[in-house]
Amino acid sequence: MRKINFIVALGTGLLVFGVALTRSVPAGTVPSQAGTIPVKPRYISLAPATTEILFALGLDEEIVGVSSFCNYPLKAKTKEKVGTFSQPNVEKIISLKPDIIFCTGLEQTPVVNALRQLNLKVYVSDPSNIKELLNSIRDIGRLTGREKEADTLINKMEQVLGQVNVKVKLIPPEKRLKVFIEIWHDPLMTVGKKSFVDEVLTLAGGINIAADTLQPYLYFSPEQVIKRNPDCIIQTYMSENEPLKTIEKRLGWKEISAVKHGRVYNDINPDILLRPGPRIVEGLQELHKKLYP
Predict the structure, then answer these.
(1) 12-31 residue pLDDT tens
(2) % of the chain surpassing 70 pLDDT
(3) How far apart are the first and last CA of the chain?
(4) Do 117 and 189 have their domain in common?
(5) Which one of 42, 93, 164, 200 is most buried, by most CB atoms within 10 A?
(6) How far apart are CA 284 and CA 269, in angstroms?
(7) Closest CA to 191 of 75, 98, 273, 250
(8) How many other CB atoms are found less than 10 A from the CB of residue 9?
(9) pTM for the structure as a whole
């Protein structure tokens, strides 16, 4: 189950940011004896990250359906479920008569194409960096008529980014820690230079030991981890096992600086570190605190 949750979180952060819509869908009206009654727009979100954005913009009542993996905020769990992250139920989606369906890339590409073929309005948000995430929030605010709320949210996120940046600037380059981000252990996976997580790590003041690789997410050999000798190891999947004791059992890993000094962590919520949504700044703060407590 931990591996499934990790894959869902990671799936929301891969590929390149895309925009499928360029106009907003305002609330409609229906006639009544007293005049007209506003009709709230109806939104469906198939990605946990876009669900978080919609809720952060105050669109609780307008959200009529989410995927079964949309778990934040708690109110998301009370919304109508329209299938899993990678296999949403198209018939269920159609029955809910959405004005816009919010999706991401990668595994959702086939269903995005299917929904568009049915002439349904689809917005794809798949940011590959912080700038694209902020642009995505701005676009979603415009599409839903929540421009002011989007600007407020972006400003708050930029404030946190600025606060962490000030702290990082105080750390001399020679004092910055080399970090191994362990996305998964079997097989061993990490993040490369072009990944969302690599940027967050850099903003937190860390140096990614796999930053010289071209792939955003890749398999990495244990021998290379030993050779590159990270000062800190961050496992992006939460586990009940004590991470240091588990890693010490790996052949040759006892000699790694991070292991010698007990700097192996697995207690950062993967959703705030891997999911490109409003809480990414919380992940940034948590990561910075782990590196420089």
Answers:
(1) 444 333 333 333 344 444 44
(2) 87
(3) 31
(4) no
(5) 200
(6) 11
(7) 273
(8) 24
(9) 0.86
Specify whether the CB–CB gap between 112 and 122 falls below 8 A. yes
pLDDT of residue 239: 77
Report the length, in residues, of the chain: 293
Q: What is the domain range of residue 85?
A: 12-146
Nearest to 71 by CA among 281, 267, 277: 277
Residues 121, 193 within the same domain: no
CB-CB contact of 88 with 78 (8 Å): no
User: How large is the average pLDDT for residues 194-222?
Assistant: 95
Three-class secondary structure of residue 60 per DSSP = coil
| Euclidean distance between CA atoms 189 and 185, whole angstroms | 6
Domain count for the chain: 2
Whether residues 274 and 193 fall in one domain: yes
8-state DSSP, 83 = B
- 170 vs 166: CA distance, rounded Å: 7
User: What is the average pLDDT across 36-46?
Assistant: 87
pLDDT top residue among 22 and 178: 178
User: What are the start-end ranges of the E strands in the chain?
Assistant: 28-32, 35-39, 43-45, 63-66, 100-103, 122-124, 178-182, 184-185, 188-191, 207-208, 217-219, 232-235, 264-265
Distance CA 219, CA 272 (A): 22
pLDDT at residue 191 greater than cutoff 50: yes
pLDDT per residue as tens digits for the range 123-136: 999 999 999 999 99
Question: Quick one: average pLDDT of 36-61?
Answer: 93
Largest pairwise CA distance in the chain: 79
Q: 222 and 98, same structural domain?
A: no
From CA 264, how far away is CA 2, in angstroms rounded? Answer: 18
CATH number, domain of 231, equals 3.40.50.1980
- The amino acid sitting at 85 is F
Helix (H, G, I), strand (E, B) or coil at 223: helix
